[in-house]
Amino acid sequence: NDLTTGDGNTAIGDRSLLANRSGKYNTAVGSVTLNSDTAGEYNTAIGYAADVKKGVKNSTAIGNSTIVNAS
């Protein structure tokens, strides 16, 4: 992970929050969670490959491979 300026993130699981560079207050639980966005804020993803699309904020993705496209 190349996090440079993000604060308050929690990542539990292999490759979770891997792409995050400056996103703040995200929670990723599970392998490869929250990996699409480099700057998302206040997002939560729980479950294998659960994610939110780039630019989405204040969203929750729960479940295997769940993708949230809008806030």
Overall geometry comes to globular
Order of helices and strands: EEEEEE
**What characterizes the major β-sheet?**
4 strands, parallel
Over all CA atoms, what is the radius of gyration?
Answer: 10 Å
Write the layout of secondary structure elements.
Elements: E1 10-12, E2 27-29, E3 44-46, E4 51-52, E5 60-62, E6 67-68
Parallel strand pairs: 1-2, 2-3, 3-5, 4-6
What does this structure look like?
- The chain has 71 residues and is an all-beta fold.
- It is built from no helices and 6 strands.
- The model has no long low-confidence stretch (mean pLDDT 91).
- The strands form 2 sheets. The protein has a 4-stranded parallel beta sheet with strand order 1-2-3-5, with no helix packed on it.
Summarize this structure briefly.
With 71 residues, the chain is mostly beta strands.
